[in-house]
Amino acid sequence: MLQNNALLAQLKQQIRSTTPRVEGVIKATDKGFGFLETDDGESYFVPPPAMKQVIHGDRVAAVVHEEGDKRSVEPDTLIEQGLARFVARVQKRDGRLAVVPDHPSIKNVLKSRIKNSLDEDSIADGDWIVARLVRHPLKENDRGFFAQIDELVVKANDPAVPWRVTLARHALEQASPEAGDDWPLRDEGLAREDLTTEPFFTIDGEKTRDMDDALRVEPRDGGGWRLSVAIADPTAYVDEQHAADLEARVRAFTVYLPGQNVTMLPEVLADDLCSLWEGRERPVLACSLEVNADGSLGDYRFFAATAKSHAKLVYDQVSDWLEGQGEWAPDAAIAPQLEALRDLTEARSAWRAEHALVFKDRPDYEFELDEAGNVLGIRTEERRIANRMIEESMIAANACCADLLADKVGHGIFNVHRAFDPDKAEAAHEFLSAQQIDVEREALTELPRYRELKRALESREDAWLDIRLRRFQGFTSMSALPGPHFGLGLAAYATWTSPIRKYGDMVNHRLIKQVLKGESASAEASQQLTEQLTERRRLNRMAERDVKDWLYVRFLSEAAKQQQAFDAEVIAINRGGMRVRLTANGATAFVPAPMMHSDRDKVVIDDKEGRVQIEGEERFKLGDAIRVVLTEAREETRSLVARPEA
Questions:
Q1: 150 in active site
Q2: Given 59, 192, 468, 501, which residue is catalytic?
Q3: 127 labelled catalytic
Q4: Domains, the chain
Q5: pLDDT for 23-36, tens place per residue?
Q6: What angle do CA 70, 76, 81 make, to 5 degrees?
Q7: Is 213 among the residues known to form the active site?
Q8: Nearest partner of 512 among 406, 390, 416, 393, judged by Cα
């Protein structure tokens, strides 16, 4: 009877309004207790009994309890569930069904039921599933946690577990789109120039099938070069209302995972009809651009064409030949072009280093897998001359695309990168001043001034400074309107050179074609689309990282058992320890604070400054090259644990 008493409800509300309360996100620990972290950086202890009412990641309101100088909280209101749709493993015990979320900080075993449309007998203990949390203790009328199994992802013993589970976690498609075999070339009202006799060539990885770009290079009389870039033309087959285009818009990108690609377009288009295979005529969208002897760009011209690659070249073979190594050699029609493209690349790199910006070369790490997905080895691929030749050619072509769209259309799919988030620019300025770097505030937000600052910072070759500054920097996003790309040092940048694998490039193709036909451009490049493309790119990158982490753990499990030592670089420092990247293979490992010294109280970590002191002396900082010993390879969390070598 008291439960329905209005006076009691009023009394409860009065107590709530006068009791100290906080709002924040729950962070669980392995020891049963947790913390509530507020948006302004405060942290409150959550005792084990209270943690049974919440789950890691929940945003809650909580009552504050204070006993002397100790503060704890008791969550009582759920603001936002940290767990909604999730991937988990099935647990069947004595006829009872439960799921265990696949999350390093969530150990809860959740009672569950199976969706009516699924066959319960087809789901066994240990299988991977997608579930939803349908009950929560802090929700009104809910008695406890309860989940519903919506989808079987993969059986426990399937070799494809790392790929299937990762794609499901990020709600990405498990396979390439299905499509028929009838793909006629559309009549777009464009006259296509015949380039089939011109000796275009491609340079890609040895196993690449979706080849977007082919090149032709000719030295000009009086110096400089004419670079012709022929790009695969999927919009010649797919119009905006076609089911394949609608599906591509949703997928946004081809997902590249070690050992598996999930294409954006149907494979018959991505790997066959559109791919610029050697000896096959293909419709292309092309750009002929002038590169001056000093590396600056001159005039350019976009046009539709039909082209044929005369050679499928491989990065390492081309680099070896240009460096005077190996036995491979190009034919007579291609050899002088490769030499000319090398010279063009060096000129462009020098021009960008002086007038724009150039990324530091970092190696790529390629997994060698057998058919069952076992890692046979990890190969380090340096950014050699052939890679740089393609990279510089594509940057030049994309700069021309950005100029055309900004001038003739006013919108498109642009890659925009602000060096510093607007709300962090002041903090970045204070940080630089503290490092005795005298810089005006405008140098952080104005492109010409930022170029000067970036060159000055790079000349210091201070790895700690470089990594610390990233804390204040923004990310690349996609925009429907032109904007600067601070990372490249360019006033605008719009890609059109990868339409087989990027939907934004297909959009830009259509806009270029409308310019060529003298038509008014459509409003296809919308803010809603660019936001979706940005988010999808983020998910794809996370999926690639997650699969690699899984494979790294499997590959390095024996090294952890043998306590093998590796060279490493400190890439992140937080309150619990530091994260390092192994130089030999690119894997990341965590070094917990207790691994740094037997007495945890003697380890002082300054996560804001990125420094670690041990017994009062600085021992590690961001960017340091150190030696670590692998101690654990935990497949359940896909994580590696290491300690500093003695």
A1: no
A2: 501
A3: no
A4: 21-80 (2.40.50.140), 85-158 (2.40.50.640), 193-417+485-546 (no CATH), 422-473 (no CATH), 562-644 (2.40.50.140)
A5: 999 999 988 999 99
A6: 110
A7: yes
A8: 406
